[in-house]
Amino acid sequence: MSDFRPAPAPSDLAFIRFVSVANMMKLIHRIGVETMLADLVRYIEDDFRRWPLFDKTPRVASHSAVGVIELMPTSDGEVYGFKYVNGHPKNTREGLQTVTAFGLLARVDTGYPVLLSEMTMLTALRTAATSAMVARHLAPKGSRTMAMIGNGAQSEFQALAMRKVCGIEELRLYDIDARATEKTVANLRDRGFVLTPCKTAEQAIEGAQIVTTCTADKQYATILTDNMVGSGVHINAIGGDCPGKTELHRDILARSDVFVEYTPQTRIEGEIQQMPDDFPVTEMWQVLTGAAPGRTSDRQITLFDGVGFAIEDFSALRYVRDRLDDTGDYECLDIIADPDDARDLFGMLERARPGNGKS
């Protein structure tokens, strides 16, 4: 007979909750997409209000000629989180997603992970929720019309978040690929919007109080020129997310009040990479806590230079974690080695040898 003891069953600590794409979609439909967007706005805003508690660093990026792969970490001292995300504009031409992502939450006190989740779908939701949160504080009061320049994977989420949180009723849509606009119109046709497909960006921004730019090409681009932007609008520039990629002419920045998430990251990746290092910006957490003003006049141009920051992903993962108990929309994965004797990892391996315990 063998002297080896049978390998014990994995402990509860060995398992972490995993939210697959299928379960994320179940969760979204169970909650309702617009309700979930509004909930995410609340979670993100709550975390922005406690901004000083968080570890903050520009995301760690590995750039190539065709795209970028990034890690986005942060911690509030009790929970640690990170997101893996890529950005590959060429993927659309190959029938692939431009952006894919997954994320993780872990306990700071033990280092043990507690949640692993898809974040391709969740990133679209959190990006839209962040845009709506910002617009609620910066857009002209009574805004009802939004121009959406770039009608890719983000467009429907942006539209639904802006309607739920800010009251947007009319969408003026433009994309250099008319098929993308047709797709967006088809997806939103029964959602209660007034939808106006446009042939040019200039046409799209006519009469819009909010202008959202969300294009994918990894290059310096001028989606909006200075003469296209009148006074009193809010610009939601969310397409920039890496060095060498912009959407706005620098003269627009020069006459706008610019708001950002985390200044060191935005100076590397955002529209303000075109500007001097001392170009003034306001971080959104300062507006939310009353430390700095937001919109101060009807003629002011406010510009959100949004590149996406790790705290927003942390908020989204925290929200998903908090909702799972009520739904069961997750699996448990045995991905942490947790031996019965913490000092005997090798013994755990030996007790799992095939045939162990048999004569």
Automatic annotation (TrEMBL):
Highest taxon above the source species: Bacteria
InterPro entries xref list: NAD(P)-bd_dom_sf (IPR036291), ODC_Mu_crystall (IPR003462), ODC_N (IPR023401)
Classification via SUPFAM superfamilies: NAD(P)-binding Rossmann-fold domains
Pfam family, one: OCD_Mu_crystall
Protein name: Ornithine cyclodeaminase
